[in-house]
Write a structure and sequence with these properties.
Layout lengths: L22 E3 L2 E3 L5 H13 L6 E4 L1 H9 L1 H9 L2 E4 L2 H11 L8 H15 L7
Parallel strand pairs: 3-4
Antiparallel strand pairs: 1-2
Length: 127
């Protein structure tokens, strides 16, 4: 059995949430969002369906560590969405997939999500 793809853990389809197909970056799936708004729309769709979703920020250090730590690679492959958190991941995508991935950093996405949550009246829980 191969790695789980986004939506498989939750029983939802990636396409139904507007989540683009991930690109393989040295064995780690990274979703090529075009904008922060596109990523936020996918999060909003997940919340509207009252579904759980596990997103991870992928940077070059995580990719490098995943080569040496099978447990980390398993976690990254089981995530519903991996976002491009580092310019090195974007460059690697350009070299490996002939197309770059725009950076959607975890920190910036979190702040934008917090602002959207305040606007929508969503409760935020941090662990």
């Amino acid at each position: 059995m191969g790695p789980l793809m986004p939506g498989e853990r939750t029983g939802t389809g990636r396409a139904s949430l507007g989540i683009p197909e991930p690109l393989d970056i040295v064995g780690v799936p990274v979703v090529p969002f075009e904008t922060y708004d596109q990523a936020l729309q996918c999060i909003e769709g997940t919340l509207a369906r009252r579904q759980k979703s596990f997103w991870v920020a992928i940077n070059p250090q995580k990719c490098h560590r995943a080569w040496h730590e099978k447990e980390l690679l398993d976690v990254l492959n089981k995530a519903d969405v991996g976002i491009c958190d580092g310019v090195g991941v974007s460059i690697a995508s350009r070299m490996l997939n002939t197309r770059g991935i725009k950076r959607i950093t975890g920190c910036d996405l979190f702040f934008r999500l917090a602002a959207l949550a305040a606007q929508k009246g969503w409760r935020v829980f941090m662990l």
